Structure formats: structure tokens, C-alpha cells
Amino acid sequence: MTSIQQHKYSILKDIWGFTSFRSDQSAIIDHVLAGHDSLVVMPTGGGKSLCYQLPALMLPGLTVVVSPLIALMNDQVTALHLSGVKVAAFHSNMSRAEQVETEQRLIKGDIKLLYVSPERINAPGFTALLKSLDISLFAIDEAHCVSVWGNDFRPDYVLLNKIRDGFAHVPFIALTATADAATQNDICRQLHLNNPEVFVSSFERKNITTEARPAEQKYRQTVDFLLKAKEKSGIIYCLSRKETEKLSAKLRQTGFNCDFYHAGMDADDRKRVQKDFQDDKIQFICATIAFGMGIDKSNIRWIIHYAMPKNLEGYYQEIGRAGRDGTPAQALLFYSWGDYIMLKKFIDDSQANEEFKTVQYAKLERMWEYASANECRTNLVLNYFGEFRSEPCRHCDNCLAPPKSIDATITAQKALSAVVRCNENVGLNLLIDVLRGSYRAEVREGGYDQIRTFGAGKDISFINWKIYITQLINQGYIRIDYTDHFKLKSTPLTKEVLFEGKKVRLVDLNSTNLVVEKEKPKQKKLLLEDELMKRLKEWRSELAKQKQVPAYVIFSDKVFENVVASKPSTTADLLNVEGIGKVKMEQYGKDILAIIQGFLASQDIVKNVKGQTYIETLDLYKEGFTPAEIAKAREMSETTIYSHLAYLYTKDEPVDIFKYVSMEEVSLVQEAWNKTGQEMALAAIAERLIAPIEFHKIRLALAVIIKSSKK
Ligand code: ADP
Ligand code: ZN
Fold first, then answer.
1. pLDDT tens across 163-189, in order?
2. Which residue has the least CA distance to atom 20 on ligand 1?
3. What's the average model confidence in pLDDT over 417-427?
4. CA-CA distance, 58 to 171, in Å (whole number)?
5. What beta strand segments (E) does 18-143 contain?
6. What is the pTM of this model?
7. Which chain residues have CB less than 5 Å from ligand 2, an ion?
8. Which domains does the chain have, with CATH numbers?
9. 48: CA distance to ligand 1 center in Å?
10. pLDDT in tens, 138-163
11. Is the CB of 234 under 6 A from ligand 1?
């Protein structure tokens, strides 16, 4: 390794605590260090910042980073500062005094990395200041803002090409997470990049598990999902403002800690909600797509789309807000035919020109294909973005639990025959009513109760029919006529099925496994680790409060997971943990090691006093499992579990014993126990009871008696 390469890796370890680079990072950094221009297109969470932050620390002069979002900028500055980097920000929200101080530090050469907002850097006085400094690198974050092709155009960005021209010999690196080929070219052109190398990383988000479900009973499904998500942060995206408010109110009543967010709220409310979410004070937000830009919360663990978004670009960007710290996250999409029709109507009713509308229809079509797909969803999206591949991703529902297909020729024949016999004059819902033999007015008025297939599909539920027919549409057996009120029409394939014996295979709805299955009682070891995690997080939020910074800029959850997994006992071990660099080690190493030692010591005490079997029961009990469930999970009798709980109660563990035995029962047992001369044998006590009480309750009652006699 050359000394430059060694230097690169030692900074990576000392400042960030990482031992290896991700995807293109290393090549990009080399390119920057060699003094060339580059454009980096990498998905959110891919690790773009390192591509300019690390060179900044290796290059002799100052690195100027242009970033449009002040909240994001502040977090980056805080995080770097905590890692021992000489860093500062410059934007219009700062006081004059702060600006002067920063200027002085710049002149003294006391800053390696300077974050600037675009309107600031373009101010005349500021350019003059920059001219007087030794600048080694410019980094332009969110570079798509320079292009009208991107979806977040900012006029201030276009002026940046003046800076490019004014600093002809300083390398530029532009970075973005959203840019198709046309936008990439436009960025290079607009910024006057000098013969740039374009680095495009895969947009696959491997840590996000994606899933799409028909929206049947979606409220109930959502509540189930939320119960399993425990306290983890998330966002529920809704289609309308009203929906965000309604859903949030309903979930709050159920006891969830949530709020809503949409563009119709006044600025203060929006700010408050965003801040509370960022600080983990609100667990999740029911929001329109207005929520998201400018949120740099790395520990968002899940995204629910409560309705189908209008295109895959939006969908992918929204789910991309989850799991930015690289640890596992979930994305769940609810979709329905109703959403599709509504979105279609939005386009119909919009003022846009026909050409634009045609593109929007096509995009909506792809979104629907995605939602109702039976094959790898990740491939579907990546192919859509022009990244062609066919390997299964293994992190979407269709890869994790491939749907089984069955011969559904008869089902298909019923549906197709009904389409034809209704003279291709009915939409999806009406067709299903005919198939299921409904006598509602529309059916009778159309005379559809007279046709031969009326009621032929009674045995299939309404929702299952919807899914089957969607599959038939996707396979080309039925067509939707968008120009004729979404009526269902036959296709050239229809008659092959009806008259030529063509077989049809559809996904067996009884076989589709939901990815998010019922949570099983966890292993004991994992529960103990939850406890250590909890202690680390408590320490972190205390520190965050003192320092008045967001908790995740101190250490990410991911780093804590690494700590929990390896439980280092020395400073050397701790330095080996991925994500702990030298500076943070020096600052916080002692605290972290003390927490681990304290935790291990408490575990030893627990073990010695109670033995392994009691801890296992206690852990499950604390997780909220009932004695019956614990018995099942541990393959023991319920009586045994009750005796564990009784014992744990006497050892002052938090067992709510009166849930299982009443005060009256306790006093009856006490009476009998006294009659035995305070003997512990259950049978002896049972014999002397004046009314029968189950053995396990006698044991619980004894625990109460013994504990109170000790006091
Ligand atoms: P982006 O700006 O592309 O959205 P970030 O630069 O914020 O992404 O990085 C996302 C996460 O990945 C951060 O938590 C960062 O610490 C982590 N990360 C970046 N590079 C590496 C690496 N080489 N090894 C481990 N983690 C990394
Ligand atoms: Zn897949």
C-alpha cells in the first residue's frame, strides 16, 4: 500500500471508526485526491458524505461544502465536530457575531471543512472571502437542485457555475441521490464540471425489506404492524391531508404516540412536529409526501404507504428515508384498486397538457404493476430506473416467501365469461358483484342477474376476486378501458381461455405468506442484549440533552448494535468496534466500557441468585407474554411457570402477582397454612383449605405470604 492509501485507511478508522469502504467510495476518493472533477450518484444512505469529508481531511487546504438544507447541515457539522474535525457552517440563520467568529477562524486556517448554504456562497462579499483562502476542494451536495430536470430545482444552484469558473484549478465533486441519465448530464453541464467522471452506484437498498399487501382491513393490519414495531420510528404516508389527521387521531386514541404533518399546516406546527419526530419524542408521523425533504433522521425503521403513491420515483424516495443508518428497515405498501382509480382521476382532472398526462398515466401503470407484482419487487424498481438485473433480491416479500401458483383455469373462465356476458359494460366492482350473485340495484338494473355466470363465483370472497382479476389483467386476459369508465373488456387471449382450452395459472391466495409474521418469543440472549442496548441509549439521550444535539449524531443505533454484539471489555477491543473512531473512543470510551461492565455484573448477580431458568421466564414475562404463552415457548407446564413467577416475586422482581391470585385466595391460603403449622407442602395446605384452590394459586399465595412476613 502506498502511503497515501495507508493515510486514507487510518483516517477512516480514526475519525469514523470504519475499516473498509463501501462500493465506489474508495475510487471516488482517489479521483478527488488526484484533483479531478466528479459526479457521484448514490442512493440515500449509500455513504456520499465520506466521499468529500475524507479527502477534506487529507488535502492541505479548506474544503467548502454547499448544502441546501440547514437542518441537515447542522447535523453533519455536529457529528464531525464530535469526531474531532475542525468544521463550521455558514448560513443565514446564524447571528452576525457567529458569522464574524467563523470568518476569523477561516482566515486563521482553523477550519478544514466549511458547510455553506447556496445563497450565502453566491453573496459577493463571501466570494471575495473565499478568494483569500487556500481552498482544496468544493463539494456540491444535493446537486440535482441545479437541474430543472430534477424535481427540486433551486435557482441559487445555477449560480454555482460562477464559483466553478472562478476556481478553475480546484476540483469539484457534485453529489446526488436522484438523477436519471438526462439529469446527470444536465448537472455536469450546469455546474461547468471539468471533464468529470460520473460514478453511479446501485440504487438497491439492501437493508430495506419491501412488502406490498392488498388494502383489505388496512387499519387493523396497520395496528398489528405498529404493535410489533414497538417504539421504533416510522412514517405513514397518506394520500390526503384529511387522511393524515384522521388516521393520526384514531391511532392516538388507540394509545400510539404519533402526530400528523402536511403542507396545509402553519409553519410553526410543521417545525414542531418535525423536531419532535427528529428528537424521538414522537414515534411516528402520519403525513403527506410533503413530509420528508430535509429530514435527516437516520433511525427511521419503517415506512407504511397507507395508499398507493402515484409513481415509483416517489415511492422509492419515500421508502428510502428508512434505514439510513444501514440497519434493517421495513417498507409496507397497501394498495387497492380504489387508489388506482383515484390517482387516475387526479391526472384526468389536472390542468396539465396531454403529453404530460400520458407520461403520468404510464408511471401510474408501472406503480400498479409493482404493487400487484408476484415476482421480485426490487428488480422491478431497479429495472425501471435503468439498472437491469434479474437476480432475486432476497429482501422483498416475493423473494422471501414466493407465492405459489395454482391451476386457476376454472376461476379465470368464470371471470372472463362474466366479462363477455355483461357485454363488456361493467367495471371491476360490479363484475365481482355479478360473480358473487349480489342483487344490488345496479346488478338488477343491468339485467346481470339473468346471465349464466351470475353467482358462479360465490365461493370466492370479494377481496380475493379483486386480486384474481388484477392478476388476470396483469397477465393480459382482461383489459381495462380507461377511456370508457374503467370498464373491463376482453382481449385476444380471452377466447383462448374460454374456447380453446388454454390453462391459466394464478397465485394461490392461501399460500401467500406475510413477511411480517407473528413475533415469536425471543431467545433469552437477545432479551438480555435489549437491556444493554437500552442502557446505552439512555446514556446517549442524557448526553444529547446536555450537549443539545440529536442523539444519533453522537452514536448511531448501528454502532450500538456492534457494541452490544461484541461487548468489548478494554479500550483496545472498543476501538475494534465498527463505527468507533479514536476521538470518540477518547471522549466516551470510559463511559461505554463502564456501562458494559455494569450490565455484565448485573447479569452475573441475576444468574447466581436465580439460576438460568428463572431468568428465561422473567425475560419473557417482561416482554408481556402470558404464563400460558411462556409455558408454550419454553415447553414447560403452566404450573411450573407459575412457580417461577412466585419465586421471582419473592425476589423482588417486577411480577404483578395479583393478576393471578386474589387477596381473598391469599387469606384463605394463609389460614390453611397456619393450621399446618406453617408447612410448605402444597398438599398439606390444600387439605386444610375451607374452599378448593388450584395448586398453582396456592403457590402464588404462599409467595405473597412469605414476602410480606419478611418485611
Ligand atoms: P448519504 O449522504 O449517501 O445519504 P451518509 O453519508 O449519510 O449517506 O451515510 C449513511 C450511513 O452510512 C452513515 O451512518 C454512515 O456513517 C454510514 N457509512 C458511510 N460509509 C461507511 C463505511 N465505509 N462503512 C460503514 N458505514 C459507513
Ligand atoms: Zn426480491
1. 999 999 999 999 998 777 778 899 999
2. 47
3. 95
4. 14
5. 38-41, 62-66, 87-90, 113-116, 135-140
6. 0.63
7. 376, 378, 393, 396, 399
8. 3-200 (3.40.50.300), 208-348 (3.40.50.300), 405-507 (1.10.10.10), 524-610 (1.10.150.80), 613-710 (no CATH)
9. 7
10. 999 999 999 887 667 888 999 999 99
11. no
